[in-house]
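I have been asked to look over a protein record a colleague put together. Thanks in advance; the entry in question is below.
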Amino acid sequence: MEKSKLIEMNNVGIVVENLDNAISFFSEIGLQVEGRDMVEGEWAGRVTGLGHQSVEVVMMVTPDGHSRLEISKFLTPATVSDHRAAPVNSLGYLRIMFRVDNIDELVPRLIRIGAELVGEIVSYEDIYKLCYIRGTEGILVGLAEQINK
């Protein structure tokens, strides 16, 4: 049998309490809604290991069409833990990072809609400007602007 080959990374998933707020926040960064639907039933639970589930899912896509963010709100079963306030050195899923074209314009705009700058915007070896922000529901998001192209 031929060894399986990786084709692409399909998406990153984030669970939230308020889908509309998450859509607004990630739209402000530049993602676009690709679709929104309910995922329900025993078949879905066989994939996740959660049994019967009811989940509202929004798929958002980057402008280049290559990367997706799957945002989910679980109606059943209820969420069992909350890692949104975890610091950057915590184990497990930590953050998602986006490359943007004008970090100095974007960060103040995100702060105006409720995001918080975690540290500060820094330069890395004259290659990138980088920062972390806590967006909607405290989700940790990294932003990177390539400054030496």
Observations:
- Residues 19-29 form the longest helix (11 residues).
- The chain has a mean pLDDT of 91.
- Helices lie at 19-29, 42-48, 103-112.
